[in-house]
Structures are given as C-alpha cells and as structure tokens.
Q: What sequence folds into this?
C-alpha cells in the first residue's frame, strides 16, 4: 500500500513505523520545518540538556505494552514529575498531598488531613462546573490557592464556566507521595524525543516545510491510505467554522547559573502573574553540570487561525461542531483516517496517542 501521512508528530510517526513493518510505503509530509510535532526537542549545548520546545513532555503510562514499545526507541531516565507551586511568594508541594496539607493547614497525619478536608469541602453530588467540583473534593481554600487563578489563565475562562474534566487528571493524596502522575511507568527519553521520532520514521520518505492544504487533492493522489493528523476543521476548510483551541507562547531564557529553580516545573497559580509555569529543562535530563541553564516561561493565550493548536477546548458548542466535522469525515473512511490530538480533537497525553495509533494499525492489519 502507498500511505500518505500528514503530520510528523507522534501519532503519524507510530503509524509510519508500524505500517512500514508490514511492508507498506510511507510518505510523511509536515508543515513545520522539523519533525516531532509538539514533542520536538533540541539539544542546547550551553545548558547540557534537551529543550522541550513546545512545553514540558513527560512520558507516563500504565500500559506495559506502550511503555515497552517506547523503550524500543530510547532509553528512559528515572525522572518523576514532582511539581512545586508558587503562590503569593509561598512555595507548596503539588499535586495536593499530605505535605501540601501540612503547609496549608498544619496537619501532619493522613487522619488529621482527612478530617481537615472533610470540614472544608462543600458536599455536592452533581457539581455543575469545575469550581463546584473542586469545592466538593478539596474545599474552597485549596481551590483558591491552587486551581482558580491557574485555570483562569490556562483556559481564559473562570472555572465556574468550565467542566471539571481538566482537573480530574490531578491526583489528591493523603500521603506524602508528590508524584504528578499515578501511572506505573514514567520518564524522559535520554537523547530527547526528536531522536525517537527519527527512529520511528526511519525508512519513510519525509518532507518538512510543506503545506498539505495548499494542494490536498494533489498530495492524496495515488495514496491508498491517508492518515491525517492535522486539525480536523482545517481539513474541511473550516466549512462549519473553527473549533475552539487554546494556544501557548513560550519565552526562553538562558540564565548564567547552574540551577535556577531547583526543579523542572514550578507552577504560578496567582491570576495576577501572567505565566502559568516556569520550566527548567536540565532537570528533565537530570544533568545539572553546566554553569548555564535554560528556562521557559509558559504563557497561555487565545488561539486564532495560524497559531499552533495546543489544547482542544471541548465544551458543548465545540463538541457539536466537532460532531459535524466527524460526520463529514466518516464517509471518507477507510481511505482517509483522522488521528491524534488534532485529528480526533482530544486532550490526549503522549501514551494515549501511542495507544490510539497502535490500535489503528492493528485494525489496518485486520
Ligand atoms: N491545574 C491547576 N493548577 C495547577 C495545575 C493544574 O488549576 O497548578 C488545573 C488546570 O485547570 C489545568 C488542569 O489542572 O488545565 C490540568 O493540568 P495539567 O498539568 O495536567 O495540564 P497540562 O500539563 O496538560 O497543561
């Protein structure tokens, strides 16, 4: 089969690798001038580490199949994401765990923490929005400290106007475990993510800096299967209007110190601080040797056409719009397949992308 893959991100790369193993010929075209999509990393010699150019990417999964799969392409280090929160000049352990509860309330044991939380929460069996959900799980004090301001900046909307989904990913623990994720496997690839994508694409014909939308019919000509990983609304020329996305702006600075903040990720939860987090990339690679460090301030921003679509914003309106696009996409199947965070309009993590791509390729195999 001749396969055309639009987009050289993780979804496209896994598909290319799997389909090439079956003997199919894969041509991969990519709009940006590099492969890897948003997991693109590049080595910064001054700081002795890889830069996560489009924001922090920490690989984590509960699936042994997906973990073993990724480990075929890279060795992973033992990085565990342990975020700190800066709020009004104070620093807190995060996600909320017993140490956070000690810092905020002075409680020292799981039992005391449980009692303190029980006294604080506002019971609600059917929370109508993120604020109500948070107040029913962690109470208003913790909600205001950690969630309200950050979420307002991240999504450009007050948590009262948002569904609770996005925060449900965050654990709340009454132990001192401050791991950001509950998954069994976690790490950062030694050598960066771009090297993984390169290996996955080995054997494919890859062209970067080309625009599929400029000549869709031309690119698709002769392809038995088209795997499209770009935004689904762009594929249809936004015929029903644009889907809602959230974008990001990154400000990178090389700082003359070997360690700027002592951690890879520090979240800033005050609404008055314009950025949401500061990343210090050398901590991802666990190498603090160099006398220079690279830090990135992450600023969420509204998305307009032409910006990178970082987060799909799923709400009732965008859900309905997406359904219309998907209804137009369905009849194109099986020749045209829509996949990945933008093709499926889902807030996927990397392991979910890999899982979905493997499932699709299993399906192609039949
Ligand atoms: N969140 C928050 N405060 C924080 C971190 C996260 O309120 O300090 C909320 C926010 O709504 C965010 C969601 O939790 O969008 C998910 O956070 P996560 O760090 O998983 O998001 P990502 O890394 O995908 O941007």
A:
């Amino acid at each position: 089969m001749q396969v055309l893959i639009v987009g050289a991100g993780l979804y496209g790369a896994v598909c290319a690798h799997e389909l090439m193993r079956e003997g199919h010929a894969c041509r991969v075209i990519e709009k940006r001038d590099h492969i890897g999509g948003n997991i693109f990393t590049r080595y910064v010699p001054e700081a002795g580490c890889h830069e996560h150019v489009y924001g922090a990417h920490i690989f984590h999964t509960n699936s042994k199949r997906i973990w073993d799969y990724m480990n075929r392409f890279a060795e992973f280090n033992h990085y565990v994401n342990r975020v700190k929160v800066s709020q009004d000049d104070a620093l807190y352990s995060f996600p909320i765990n017993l140490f956070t509860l000690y810092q905020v309330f002075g409680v020292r044991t799981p039992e005391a923490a449980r009692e303190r939380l029980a006294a604080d929460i506002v019971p609600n069996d059917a929370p109508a929005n993120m604020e109500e959900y948070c107040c029913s799980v962690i109470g208003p004090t913790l909600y205001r400290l950690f969630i309200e301001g950050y979420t307002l900046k991240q999504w450009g909307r007050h948590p009262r106007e948002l569904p609770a989904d996005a925060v449900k990913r965050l654990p709340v623990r009454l132990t001192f475990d401050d791991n950001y994720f509950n998954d069994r496997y976690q790490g950062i690839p030694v050598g960066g993510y771009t090297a993984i994508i390169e290996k996955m694409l080995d054997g494919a014909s890859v062209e970067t800096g080309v625009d599929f939308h400029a000549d869709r019919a031309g690119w698709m000509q002769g392809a038995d299967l088209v795997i499209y990983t770009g935004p689904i609304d762009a594929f249809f020329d936004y015929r029903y209007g644009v889907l809602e996305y959230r974008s990001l702006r990154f400000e990178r600075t090389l700082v003359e110190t070997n360690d700027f903040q002592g951690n890879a990720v520090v979240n800033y939860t005050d609404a008055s601080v314009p950025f949401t987090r500061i990343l210090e990339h050398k901590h991802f690679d666990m190498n603090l040797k160099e006398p220079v460090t690279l830090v990135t301030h992450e600023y969420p921003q509204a998305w307009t056409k032409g910006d990178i679509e970082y987060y799909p914003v799923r709400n009732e309106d965008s859900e309905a719009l997406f359904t219309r696009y998907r209804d137009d996409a369905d009849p194109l199947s099986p020749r045209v397949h829509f996949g990945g965070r933008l093709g499926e309009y889902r807030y996927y993590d990397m392991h979910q992308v890999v899982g979905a791509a493997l499932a699709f390729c299993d399906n192609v195999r039949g």
The longest strand covers residues 245-255. The chain has a mean pLDDT of 97. Residues 84-167 form one domain. Residues 85, 94, 146-147, 150-151, 154, 166-167, 169-170, 267, 269 surround uridine-5'-diphosphate (CB under 6 Å).
